[in-house]
Structure formats: C-alpha cells, structure tokens
Amino acid sequence: MATTDLPNRVTIRKVKPRPRSLESYAWFFMRLSGVALLLLAVGHMVMQHIQNDVHDASLQWVLQSRWAFTWIRVWDFALLGLAFVHGLNGFHTVMVDYVHNATVLKVIRLLIVFVGGVILLMGAIAIIGAPML
Amino acid sequence: MPTNNLGLTLEQSIKYQGRFGQWAWIFHRVSGLGVLLFLTIHIVDTSFVYFAPPLYEEALKLYKSVPFGIGEIFLMAAVLYHAANGIRVALVDFFPQLTTKQREMWMVVWAFFLVTFIPSAYIMGRGILHSIGINI
Questions:
Q1: Domains in chain B, please, with CATH?
Q2: How far is residue A91's CA from residue B61's CA, in Å, rounded to a whole number?
Q3: Which residues are within 8 A (CB) of A44 and not within 5 positions of it... i.e. 6 or more apart?
C-alpha cells in the first residue's frame, strides 16, 4: 500500500437516500399486522373453537352472545381489516414470484384490489350494520 | 431455460437442499394461502348475518358438517404455525444478531406449535365426535 501525502479530506456522500418504496411499506405492514394478528387471529380461534364450539353456533348466538358486545365488533373489525389485507398482500407476493407475464400480473393485481375490496366492504358493512341486540 | 410453472416450482422446492429454513418458507406459504382461502369464504358467509340471515343458517349447517370440522382442525394448525413462524421471521428481520440462533428459533416455533395445537385438535376433534353422537 502506497502512502499518499494528500491532506485528509472529508468525503461527502452525494447520493440521496432513495425514498421509501411502496413495497417497503408493505414489508413493514406485514410485520406489524402479523404481531397484531397473533392476538387477534389466534384469540379469535381460541374464542370460537376452544371456549365455544362451532356446533352450538346460530344466527341468534352471533347476535346475542357476540355482536351484542361492542368490543367484539371492534375486535372483529380490526381482525377483518388486518387479516384480509395481510392475506391479500401475501397472495400478491406469491403471484409476483410465479407469474412472469406482465399483463397477467396486472390483471391479478386489479382482481386483488377490486374483488378483495368488495369482500372487505361486505364484511365491514355486516359488522357495523348488523342489528344491535 | 425451463419456463416457470407450478410443477417445476414444486419439484425444485423438494429437491433444493435448503434444510429447515426452506421448509419453514414452504410451510409459511402453504399455510398462508390456506388461511386466506378460508378467510375469504368466512368473510362472505359472515356477511350473510346482515345481508341474508336465512342463508347464514344454511352456511352454518355446512360449518357443522364433519368434513368442514376436520378442515377447521387443519385451519387451526395453519394459523398456529403461520403465527409462530411469522413472529420468528419478524424477530430475525428486526434483530439481525438472532441469525446465529436460527436453529434454536426453529425449535421454539415447533415447540409452540405442538403445545398449542395438540390440545386444540383434541378439543375440536371431541366436538366433531360429539356432533355425530360419540361422546368421549
């Protein structure tokens, strides 16, 4: 290694950090929602399958023993939004891995947004709109 | 160059010698897609509570059938595995020093899975048997 007699200079980093991409937000959302779903989704499974039995469920039971409580509607609403968006984004990740035709991928993306959006809206309307007993 | 297709993906997924990290990844994908499939059906049928109450009772009949009950035990397995492995992935992402503890974390995932799944499967299985008149 040759030594130089150049004076010490401060190297100035001129590269601007790139703005965060949509994908990096999606990555962060998957981790955050995942941690929340550990409580919301696993808790939902415990309430519905361990504490209660699906074989005892009925329309009456849902309205009287579940949706009569505001906190359960809030829980279900958070679970609906976080779990479904987490799932759809995961599905999108899998599609990006395996679908290499740009047009097909575009169609799949549109379907995820619109079909997913309609189903999400149906669930949200039901949780908010079902009669309060 | 072979074209990418599902058959090739499945073949290479089995052949690739990625050891436990590879299996963690495959199980995470399969369980995630399975839960999404169930969730999509479940949101639509639950929305019948508001949109079509008589149809909701019909959907519940399906839920109470034996094949669907067995499917729900698989759903429980998928949710528990996906939760445990997902937390492992997030921990390694946010605390890179944990990459030296991958094997131990993989063991913790399975310990959590077995401890939570076995009693759940027992309780759910008992419920299915009870519904067809077998009481244990």
A1: 19-131 (1.20.1300.10)
A2: 29
A3: A75, A76, A79
User: Chain B partners of A50 at a C-beta cutoff of 8 Å?
Assistant: 120, 123-124
A34 lies in which domain range? 24-129
- Residues in chain A predicted with pLDDT less than 70, given as ranges, are 1-9, 11, 13
Residue A17: inside a domain:
no
CATH number of the domain encompassing residue A57? 1.20.1300
Given a cut of 50, whether residue B59 has pLDDT beyond it is yes
Whether A130 and B50 have beta carbons less than 8 Å apart is answered as yes
Assess contact for A42 and B82: CB atoms under 8 A: no
Looking at chain B from residue 46 to 105, which residues have their Cβ under 8 Å from any Cβ of chain A?
46-51, 53, 56-57, 60, 63-64, 69, 72, 75-76, 79-80, 83, 86-87, 90, 93-94
Q: How far is A2 from chain B (nearest CA, A)?
A: 37
ipTM of the complex: 0.91
CA distances from B120 to B39, B51, B126 (A): 19, 32, 10
Could you give the maximum distance between any two Cα atoms of chain B, in Å? 58
Cα–Cα nearest to A41, from B16, B119, B86: B86
**B22-to-A74, B15, B27 alpha-carbon distances in Å:** 37, 11, 9
pTM for this one? 0.89
